[in-house]
What does this fold into?
Amino acid sequence: MRLATTTSPPRTPADDDRSLAQDAARGDRRAFDRLVSRYLDRTLRICLRLVGNLEDAEDTVQETFARAHARLSSFAGRSTFGTWITSIALRLCADLERARKSRRRHVGELPHDFDLDRDARAPRSANPSLQSEQRETVRDVEAALARLPRRLRVALTLRTIEGLEYEEVARAMGTTIRSARLYVWEARQRLARELDPEAPP
Amino acid sequence: MTARCRRTGRVLPYVDGELAAAEAAAFEDHVETCAACRRAVAVQRALEERLVALPRPRLQLADALRLEQAIGERIDRADRSAPPRPRLFALRRVAAAAAVLGAAALGLARWRTAGPVDAPVAVAPVPAAAPRRDVAFEPRAGDPALLEPARAEVVRVLAALPDERSLDDPLAAFHEATRPLREARVPLLPILEQLLKDPDPAPARAAARLLALDARGRSLGPDDPVLVPLLESAMRRADRGDAMVRALVAIGSPRAWAAVAAACELPHLRRDALVALAGRRDGASLPLLQRELQAELKRRESALVDAALAALPAADEARLKLLAELLRAGATPDEVAAALRRARFEAADALAAMLATRGAPRRDALLLAPLLQDDSLVAPLAELVARSDDPSAAAQALARFDGAPTVVAFATLAADPSLSRSRARILSSAFGQWLARCDDPRAVLDAAAEQLHEDARALEALVGFTLATPAPGGAGARLALIACRHLSPADRVRLIQELLTRREPAAPAELLAILGDASAQRDEGAGTAETRASDRLLAALLLCTYVNGGDEPLLEGARAVGGALTPAREARLRAAARALASSVARPGDRTRFDALLELAP
It folds into this structure.
C-alpha cells in the first residue's frame, strides 16, 4: 500500500519576507526588526551610492525603514519586501538629492570606517604601487559612475553592483523591465566610453 | 578605425548574461570572426571587472546595531506622535524596556561569566516582568564584546551539526539550536561570514557548508554581495578552499560564478572549480570551461578533463559543441560518451536538430552521434547519406553505430531506387566498415533480416552488401546470413555458392549446426512451394560441409537431414560430393552447381 504523502512547495526568501511583513503589520516588532537586519546593509549601500555621503545615507536609511514600518499595511506583497524597501529608499534619495544638492559629495570618498571586511576586498598584490593603481582605478570608476544621469546610475547600481534581477530593478524604479534593461545598457556604454575614450560606440 | 557591425547591439545583452544559451553560443561564433564585436565585448568585459571590483562596504556589527537602534527609536517616536493604538506589542516593549534598564548590567555580566554554551538564554537572571531574551542578549547595548559569546555559541552549534550521512537537516538543526540567539536579534550571517576567515579550518568549513545549504532558501539573510568576496578570499586557503567553492556554487549568482571561475587559477582548487563550472546549469561558463579543458588536454592531462566531463550534462547544443571540441583536442571518447549518455534523451534530440543544420553544428553532431549510440539518430543519419552534400561523413558516422537498426537503415536506403550510384557505393563501403567493427555480426544481421523479412528489396540489398564486402569481414557476414532463417533459401544458396567460389573457409561444426536448423525449417514448411528451394539449400550446405570437412561431416550432415543412409546412398553421396567439389568452385559454374540437388535427401 502506498502511503499518502503531502508535499508543500519550498519556502522562498520572498515568502519568508512576506510572512515577516504580515507579522510586522499586525504589530510584531521583532518581525520588522528581522526585516531591517536583512535589508539594512543593501539599503545603506544603495543610499550611499546615490546620496554620496554616509551621514545622509544613514539618515535616509532610517527614514526608509521608519516609513516602511508606518506603511506596512500597504505592502501588498506584489513585489518582494527587498524591492519595496529599495523603491522607498530610491524615492527618499531622490528627495534628498533635490533638497541637499549643495551638500552632495560623491562616493569617490567612501568612508573607510564603514568597511567591515577590508581584507576580503583588498588588492591581492603585495606590490604597493599596484595597490595604488587599483585604488586609482576604483576612484575613476566611482567618479564616472557619479557623473551618470540619476536613472542610469540607479539602474546600474541595482543591477550590476547589487546584483538584482531586472524585474526587481524595474519594480524598484517604477518602470518596465525593458526600460530597466535600456538604462543599464546605456549606463554601461556611457561608462565604457568615459573610462576608455577609444571604446567603440 | 574599427568598422561597425550590425550585431554590436548583441554585445551588451551578451555580456550582461541576458542571451539564451543558444543565442550566446551563436554570438560567440560571430565574435570569433568579427573584430568590431570582439573589441566591444572586450571593452564591456573590462568594465564589468572594474564594476565588480568596486568596494561594497559592509557595516561593522556595532554600526549595524547602532543603526538598527536608531531606526527603532525613529519608529518609536513616530508611534508616540501617532494617535494611540491598542497594540499588545507596544505594552510588551514598554515592559521589556523597563526590565532592560533595571537588569541589563547584572544580567549581561552573569551571562558572560557563565558562558553561553548550553543555555545562553536561560542562564540570565530575568525579572519576572521582562521577556527573558531582552536581558540575556540585548544587542542594542551596542557592546561588540557581547558578540564573542554568540560567536562561540555558533561555533559550538556548527561543530555539532549532523554530517552528510545523517538524514537530519543540518540547516534546520542550526536554526533550532540558534533560536535563542535569533530571538535576541543576534545577526548570525555576519558571524558566519567572519568564521570563514577563522584560523581554524573546521568552523570555517562548517560555516561555508551551512551557507551553501542556506543558499536556496536564504533563511540566514538576503543574497549579500559581500558574502561572495568573503568566500572568494577564504577559498585561497587550501585547508578550506573546496568548502568555499561548494558554497559559491550553491549561491549561484553571476558574482559567485565569477569567483568559481577565478578558482581555476588556484592549483588546490582547479579540479573543484572545473567540475563546478562543468555542472553549471545555465551554460554561461562554457567558453571558459572549453579554454581551460583544452589547455589541460594540450598538457596531455586528461584526469581533470575526465572529472569535468563527469559533471557535464550534455543536454543542449552549446554543451555538445564543447564536447565535440574536447574530443577533437584529445579527450577520452569513453568519457565523452559517458557525458552524452547521462542526458541521453536531451542529447539525442539536440544531436538530431544539429544534424538537420549545416556547417559546424552538423560536423559536431556527426562526431558525437556514434558515441551516444542512440537508435533515434539512425534515421537522420541515413537521411543525410541519401540527401546531404557530404554523404561520406554521414555514412561513416552511421557505420559506427551498433545494432540491427543500423543494418536495417543501410539495407532500406540501398533498396531505394532513387539512390544514386555514387551514394550506393559510399553506402556499400560504409557497410564494410560497419561489418569490420561489429562484435557479433551474426546476431545483428539475423535481427536485421527478421525486421526486413517483408521487404524483399531491402533483403536483396543486404545480401548485395554482404557479397560486395571482401573477406575476412565479408566471409563472416556471408556465413552469418547463410545461417539466417529470415533470408530466402534461394538467397542462402547464392551465398553458399559465393562462399565456395571464393574458397572462403567455414568450420564444419558451424555448418552442421546451420544444416540442422535448415532441416528443421524445411520440415516445418514441408509440402509448400518452398520445399524444393529448401532442398536445394540443404544440398548446398551438405556440399559446403564436405568441402570444409571431408567425408565424415558430410555423412553426419546427411544423417541430420534425415532419410536412410544405406551403404549405396553413402557411396553415391561421397562420389557426387567429390565430383561437385572439384568443379563447383569455378566462378559462374551454375550448371554444375545445380547438380547439388543430387545431394538432397
In short: Chain B has 34 helices and no strands. Residues 84-143 of chain B have pLDDT under 50 and may be disordered. Residues 275 and 308 of chain B are 4 Å apart (CA to CA). The two ends of chain B are 92 Å apart (CA to CA).
